[in-house]
Write a structure and sequence with these properties.
This protein is α/β, with parallel strands linked by helices. It has 14 helices and 7 strands.
Length: 336
């Protein structure tokens, strides 16, 4: 599997399971070709495979080079001025779009308007030139509202030039209301920015696939600001057979011996949670022995109770983040 978009999972062979979820998404993508698929939201706890599936979906669609152009963008968990955010969003889309249309992956590294315009000229995508120039002019004038409007609508409006189809994948969508600010000094938070997608999310030539790890926040945003715009789907734990497959696969990759019987035990103890299985194999516990159940339990105890444990660290991340926002209604929902 060629990685056009670098996957956070690392070694592509680590991607295991999620067959049903990926097949369902591929079926949904088929509907984009005929403009029958509605925007979709994936909600689930952190490290359950949402980003891995979205990035793998991007690489599958990019390799197919069929009718649907994939666009992947992750909203970073850090304060950002909306002008910078809009520019990053816009440039990321344009470079992925040009790379797909030209079958030239080198364009995925384009960083500037000048590079994008040159790429458009080289690949005879002349309709992009004025679009890029207009966006740059809005940035130079400091016209924030037109800048964000143009960036947000770019996948849809650019797709219309050649009757293309675009799949917009926006990872960690709940951060759009939490980390984007109207002012350069990051004092005035754009707390209802998700609502700007009320109109955008309805178009079938460029539907959205958004994800969210902070389930309470995302559901609150979707229900209040984007009612009826998204089909909600959940990523639960993996079925037992996939959890066993993952344990055996990781055993081979990390060169840690495990029998089929022990892999079954690991699948049952972790209840098919892909993050827990991964954490066991990548644990700092010094004497891993997965040949018997007690050895698996020893590593699991370390991961959940020791301050160096990755599972414990993720639990604490949820708790600390929720406590920081305990006066916020959405923060209370996470605690509950």
């Amino acid at each position: 599997m060629q990685n056009f978009l670098k996957e956070k999972i690392g070694n592509p062979a680590l991607f295991t399971g999620r067959k049903k979820e990926l097949n369902n998404l591929l079926h949904w993508v088929d509907g984009i070709k005929t403009e029958t698929s509605k925007s979709k939201a994936i909600i689930s706890r952190r490290k359950t495979g949402k980003s891995a599936v979205m990035q793998r979906l991007f690489n599958i669609l990019f390799a197919q080079n069929d009718q649907v152009i994939p666009f992947y963008f992750e909203i970073r968990e850090t304060p950002q001025w909306i002008a910078d955010f809009a520019k990053e969003f816009y440039i990321t889309f344009l470079r992925q779009y040009i790379a797909f249309k030209s079958k030239n992956v080198s364009y995925l590294k384009s960083e500037s308007y000048k590079q994008l315009i040159q790429a458009a000229k080289t690949e005879k995508l002349d309709y992009l030139i004025s679009h890029i120039e207009n966006f740059e002019n809005s940035e130079n004038k400091g016209s924030i509202d037109p800048l964000w409007h143009t960036a947000r609508e770019a996948p849809r409006t650019i797709a219309e030039y050649n009757d293309d189809r675009v799949l917009q994948m926006i990872d960690e969508f709940q951060f759009i209301n939490r980390y984007i600010y109207w002012d350069k000094y990051k004092k005035n938070r754009a707390s209802e920015l998700a609502g700007s997608y009320l109109h955008t999310a309805e178009y079938k030539n460029s539907p959205l696939l958004v994800s969210g790890s902070w389930v309470g926040w995302l559901m609150d945003d979707l229900n209040k600001m984007l009612p009826g715009r998204f089909i909600i789907t959940d990523f639960g734990n993996m079925p037992r057979n996939e959890a066993i497959e993952m344990a055996l696969n990781y055993s081979e990759i990390f060169k840690i011996s495990i029998s089929h019987e022990a892999a079954c035990v690991m699948a049952d103890l972790t209840e098919g949670n892909p993050f827990y299985i991964s954490a066991l194999f990548q644990s700092d516990y010094q004497e891993k022995d997965f040949s018997k159940e007690q050895g698996i339990l020893d590593v699991l105890d370390f991961e959940t109770l020791d301050k160096r444990g990755g599972i414990r660290g993720t639990w604490m991340e949820y708790i600390h983040s929720a406590i920081d926002r305990i006066n916020d209604t959405n923060g209370k929902k996470i605690i509950l």
